[in-house]
Amino acid sequence: xxxxxxxxxxxxxxxxxxxxxxxxxxxxxxxxxxxxxxxxxxxxxxxxxxxxxxxxxxxxxxxxxxxxxxxxxxxxxxxxxxxxxxxxxxxxxxxxxxxxxxxxxxxxxxxxxxxxxxxxxxxxxxxxxxxxxxxxxxxxxxxxxxxxxxxxxxxxxxxxxxxxxxxxxxxxxxxxxxxxxxxxxxxxxxxxxxxxxxxxxxxxxxxxxxxxxxxxxxxxxxxxxxxxxxxxxxxxxxxxxxxxxxxxxxxxxxxxxxxxxxxxxxxxxxxxxxxxxxxxxxxxxxxxxxxxxxxxxxxxxxxxxxxxxxxxxxxxxxxxxxxxxxxxxxxxxxxxxxxxxxxxxxxxxxxxxxxxxxxxxxxxxxxxxx
Length: 370
Hints:
By secondary structure, this protein is an alpha/beta fold. It has helices at about 5-15, 20-30, 35-45, 80-100, 105, 120-130, 145-155, 200-210, 235, 255-260, 270-285, 290-305, 320-335, 340-355, and strands at about 50-55, 70-75, 135-140, 160-165, 190, 215-220, 240-245.
């Protein structure tokens, strides 16, 4: 009997066999991710010993154990590659839907996890990651270590991140709309000590942000000079949100000590970062709408924020209003919703209330007590 015919006969006979217990268990785990017709095709390949199922564990930190197991078809068949892609797409879509229930509370804790407090800043960075339009954030304050932790973590989590270093050969921005700011679209560009930019660079940066030519979001830090801004008012006006990072108070020292003792300062795992990046990209496919009955609440809040302007060292501008609207949309997108809800407004309003608080007299630092 020819070899080819013998093989076909063998596969035909095997096609009538029943799956053993291990095969049944693994096939059961793959069923939720395939349509019936694809299940039947896979079942045929398994019975004919032309495919088997293997399980890959991701080990994510934020989902229930067992939910991180990805079934994978091991086979030389071309059809298996197509099925594996379908399985993987559905697997991630399912995990994303499950993650929406905890993303608002969970994600900020993966941004600078060793940094106590600053939750409103971490929440803003989480929203920045899923926004489909640039959201530009400026963090002012004298706590260089905390600012650097925030910046480093934002760069790590962002799907695409670019660092601008002072003195590097390539400028941040040029007159013909080139430079680091335009290097990659939909990226996050980070700049430490933005006040160190030469005057011409500050002017060009302000113009680029104002003209909306760049599709990249910006996260920058600067020093705090009491009630003065160390950058031009025109440049400050281009940021959607400006935070004052308060120094660590004496009352927070206990929390810091406990965190160190409990060894909770470990870096975020790469598998978690990879999941977040996939999640961000998936969420950006959604088109978000704001219901008419919530629009008036947003208008009222923007007027409320504008009233605070005279007590702040920077102006409340149309960019501030734009930031409020886009962050509200990002809040809905973060939970994979296409319609804004009241809780999205409440989240963003709280962030802007925190950001526009007038810095109080410096609290006693825990270092001052020694």
